Amino acid sequence: MAFAVAPDAVLAGEVAVAIVAAWAARTAARPLRQSAVVVEILAGVALGPSLLGLLPGDPTGRLFPASGRGTLTSVAELGLLLFMFAIGWELDVSVVRARRTATIAMTAANFVVPFAVGAALAFALYPAYAGTRSGHRVTEAVFVVYIGVALAITAFPVLARILGDSPLRNTPVGQTAMAMAAGTDLCGWLGLALVVIAASATGSAASWTTLPLVVVYLAAMFLIVRPLLRTALAHVRAVGSGGTLPLVVAAVLASSYVSSAAGLHAAFGAFLLGLVMPRDSRAVLMLDIAEPLERTGAILMPVYFVATGLSADFHTLGWAGFELGFGVVALASTAKIGAVAAAARICGTDRREALILGVLMNTRGLTEIVVLDIGLSIGIIDAHLFTALLLMAVATTAVTTPVLHRLTSAASPATPAPWRPGSRPDRDAPSPSGPARTA
Prior knowledge:
Blueprint: H1 7-29, H2 36-47, H3 59-63, H4 69-90, H5 93-98, H6 100-129, E1 132-133, E2 136-137, H7 140-152, H8 156-164, H9 172-200, H10 204-239, H11 244-261, H12 266-276, H13 282-309, H14 318-346, H15 351-361, H16 365-377, H17 383-398, H18 400-409
Antiparallel strand pairs: 1-2
């Protein structure tokens, strides 16, 4: 006898499965020295059609019925928006400026070379893999820029998590890596924003409407919203009503709504609000905002991984699809590690530290997943290419921690690296990094 289950109860069951699966994966993978983001992504993929869906009786369809996918995606998007706000807030562009010429040169190499490799690859892939939007094939230019950005990404929050658990955390190499990742992510999000605007516009009239809206939105965020946030947060803290967190969450959701209405993805609105968030009372705000959001993210982000995993089906890739996926892994890794290591050597570092920087910059993680999810949702790529690029994101992130451990195991954790690109000892003392967000 079959019993009808209310939609809200179905959603509750789906969220429960996602949370338990993520926890079990993290626990099982702890001895492997893997980043939490890698095992949680794999847990989400395993719950989808790639593994669980292959069993008799379609367990994936029973646990996550198609009728409830939209609601599950909405819950996952809420976790994504809070996560994107955390990235924007943690991204301190002044860190990039503080390390001047050498770091900026290496950051340029970290973005430009992989972008060029990705763009060249996109020209070859466009005839077979470009997606459609509203029945219209995306333009080659949009597809090329998107794939270039996808290969150029470095996951700033995942890198923060990895460095936090390594002896490099407060060394010049670790701080330089964080500055490079911040600059690279900023370039990546700006490039992706332009791609989303172009892909979302269905004609010249739409383009002319979207661009002014985005310009007005960006100006309003920096010139109006930023000082308003500073005043509002100071007032709320003075009153002591405990309203800081509700105020910020409401601002994140409102910014996401306006961003989507202006022609960008909602994730950009959350990211931009984090970027304009006042940093003059950061220590206080960490207690009021960062820690509660981190706990909330620990619950909601596994839901995002599951929703993403349900879109990936490695079973349908076939041999050609896996060849593509591993080929992209090789291209992306060679471009990142080679470009950064070469730039670091030119700037005067030794080979081991240059290789360490290259390996760290090859970390893509959740930031790459977000980029791929946006591309799939607006039709720039299809499900087949999404799955192949997801393989690249997971593989490049999975190898970072064990390779980094091998490279640093011979060196004493207490011995700081001697190389400081373009720095003075009295100016570039290691600064404590903020706690890693859920990643």
